[in-house]
From TrEMBL:
Reactions catalysed, as given in the entry: a uridine in RNA = a pseudouridine in RNA; uridine(1911/1915/1917) in 23S rRNA = pseudouridine(1911/1915/1917) in 23S rRNA
Domain RNA-binding S4 positions: 41-104
Family (UniProt): Belongs to the pseudouridine synthase RluA family.
InterPro entries: PsdUridine_synth_cat_dom_sf, PsdUridine_synth_RluA-like_CS, PsdUridine_synth_RluC/D, PsdUridine_synth_RsuA/RluA, RluA_PseudoU_synthase, S4_RNA-bd, S4_RNA-bd_sf
TM segment ranges: none
Name by which UniProt lists this protein: Pseudouridine synthase
Keyword terms, alphabetized: Isomerase, RNA-binding
Organism: Sutterella massiliensis
Class of enzymatic activity (EC top level): isomerase
PANTHER family per the UniProt record, alphabetical: MITOCHONDRIAL RNA PSEUDOURIDINE SYNTHASE, RIBOSOMAL LARGE SUBUNIT PSEUDOURIDINE SYNTHASE D
Gene3D superfamilies linked: Pseudouridine synthase (3.30.2350.10), RNA-binding S4 domain (3.10.290.10)
Pfam families: PseudoU_synth_2, S4
NCBIfam families reported in the protein's UniProt record: rluA_subfam
CDD domains (alphabetical): PseudoU_synth_RluA_like, S4
Length: 358
């Protein structure tokens, strides 16, 4: 492996940062958690519940090989009983053999918006996972990219430099060469890539605001993240989202908002966590329902929209070869257009940049 590729692999550290990670979130560091909701259950069963992104068989192997501690003592029996309040810690991350999952696959649906010799800009549909990981070993965007663009096998992570959540739609850029990927990763790290998202939320958003709250994994759930105001370091990483409201409406007497979000950082679930923390949970979000989950479910059912209403509408960057600034806009998919129509929002096909308005 060349020195340049080794350096890039180091930068693509696959932590919780959305800019450089699709998934494998449970693998980035050795998980630790406190048992909640279990009394006298098998260790492997509890770990499987607390770490749903890791297969039970893999967790059993970690236990049997002495890689799991309970209350500070190594346990190597899968039938060992644990209960509420016990502290469980893995002594190493539950790594996947990624090479087994990096296979080209025909039939993965996504649209190419732009391509040249250095980059590919794609539009990701809802329901498509970007990168193989525990529970999603195939059928991902990465597998589809390898089929359409075989040369990507020579680029780390098949050229992927940032991610979108499974049910978030919209624009992503993929590097076609190692040099282009190095350039894009560094642009993301410098926070110079322009990324704008449309989000549709419950609540009445202020005309303009910024959320500057560190984000880390929720200690009570390995699949959730939360804001940790004033805390950075191991527990949480800095996260900053700028928000401008495009329009307001209501449904069943409940206020709703159409907001545009710009990411200054790219943490996992950043927009969903930040907006929920501002009492603006996304319509249809199945994970982050804020302080009134019953109301969220009611509005979700009323609008018949059952995924987070979040769309990566705009992407701008410096071309890694020419240095020219390039920008793309894509309107939301059909289900979100129907949601906007139901709320009286629009136009949905006009590339309005609310951040450029005075």
């Amino acid at each position: 492996m060349t020195t340049e590729k080794v350096e890039l692999e180091s930068e693509l550290d696959y932590t919780d940062d959305e800019d450089i990670d699709e998934g494998c979130e449970a693998e980035a560091s050795a998980p630790a958690f406190t048992v909640t909701g279990f009394w006298g259950e098998r260790l492997d069963k509890v770990m499987a519940a607390m770490l749903p992104d890791v297969s039970r068989a893999r967790l059993q192997k970690l236990i049997e090989t002495g890689k799991v501690e309970v209350n500070g003592a190594v346990v190597d029996k899968v039938r060992f009983k644990v209960a509420e309040g016990d502290a469980v810690r893995l002594l190493e991350p539950p790594k996947l053999d990624e090479a087994l999952h990096f296979e080209p696959e025909e039939g993965v649906e996504f649209e190419t918006i732009y391509e040249d010799e250095a980059i590919i800009v794609v539009e990701k549909p809802a329901g498509l996972v970007v990168h193989p990981g525990a529970g999603n070993h195939s059928g991902t965007l990465l597998n589809g990219l390898l089929y359409r663009y075989p040369e990507l096998k020579d680029v780390p992570r098949a050229g992927i430099v940032h991610r979108l959540d499974r049910d978030t739609t919209g624009l992503m850029v993929v590097a076609r060469t190692l040099a282009a990927q190095t350039n894009l990763v560094r642009q993301l790290q410098a926070r110079t890539v322009k990324r704008e998202y449309w989000a549709f939320t419950l609540g009445s958003a202020a005309p303009e605001f910024t959320v500057d709250v560190p984000i880390g994994r929720d200690p009570k759930s390995r699949t959730r993240f939360k804001g940790f105001p004033g805390s950075t370091g191991v527990r949480a990483k800095p996260a900053r989202t700028r928000v401008r409201t495009v329009d307001w409406s209501s449904v069943e007497g409940i206020p709703v908002s159409w907001v545009a979000c710009r990411l200054d950082t790219g943490r996992t679930h950043q927009i969903r966590v930040h907006l929920t923390g501002e009492d603006l949970p996304l319509i249809g979000d199945q994970v982050y329902r804020g302080r009134a989950p019953g109301l969220c479910v009611k509005i979700e059912n009323e609008l018949d929209f059952h995924r987070q209403a979040l769309h990566a509408s705009r992407l701008g960057l410096l071309h890694p070869v020419s240095g020219e600034f390039m920008e793309w806009f894509v309107p939301p998919p059909e289900d979100m257009i129907e949601l906007m129509d139901a709320l009286g929002f629009g136009p949905w096909d006009a590339p309005v940049d609310v951040f450029d308005r005075q």
